[in-house]
Amino acid sequence: MTIRSTGGRVAAYAWFVFAVLNFVDLFAGVTGDPDYSATTFTIAFLLLLGCGIAYAVGLRPMIMGDDDALTVRNPLRDVRVPWAAVRGIEGKNAVTVRFAGPDGTELETRAWVHQTSPRAQAKAEARAQKQARKSQGPTLDLRGRTPTGFVAQQLNEMRDRHRPKTKSGAPDKAAAARTEAPARGTVTWSIPAVAALVVPLVAAIVTVVVSTLS
């Protein structure tokens, strides 16, 4: 199960195309003579910075669930949590995961993708309540009425499926015994994402400073 932002990816690729066309124009002189001045290189580094932002914000964010763990990838950090370490998944304004951190304390991460504004959440709940009144039945479960709620529901179902169980449905003590260390989630910085932002920014600043001093 992999969830990404379609709009974010489209915007990121659109920026990449825009940046490539500008690079060609700057250094090949499509609309004029090529110019290799400090200003040109500054503009080029700023375009690269924009590409770094497009990569970090548009392409990187993702929610992925596999047989072993849940992964939440945000612009600059990656969170990977074994299903046994997940303590709760909620989907309100954003998909929020509570889990046991590396030292055993409870941590929380909010997914970048599939965020819902409070106004959209309120409208979804109002629609669900209206449907419940019309059907004259019990109050409907409001989860799944927005994209964030639906994703949280799916992830909770995956968590329940991947918990070790015996044939009777009880927790598998043998499986738990084989795992001596308790399950823990990890939080790591994305080196490529940080580099994609820091390197062109520093290069642009250095170019401006050198051109000013020369």
UniProtKB/TrEMBL annotation:
Which keywords describe this protein according to UniProt? Answer: Membrane, Transmembrane, Transmembrane helix
Give the residue spans that cross the bilayer.
12-30, 36-57, 187-210
Residue ranges of the Low molecular weight protein antigen 6 PH domain?
66-129
Q: Which InterPro entries match?
A: CFP-6_PH
What segment(s) does the record annotate as region Disordered? 115-184
> Where does the source fall among the domains of life?
Bacteria
Where composition is biased (Low complexity), the residues are: 171-184
Give the protein name, as stated in the record. Answer: PH domain-containing protein
- Give the species this sequence originates from: Actinomadura chokoriensis
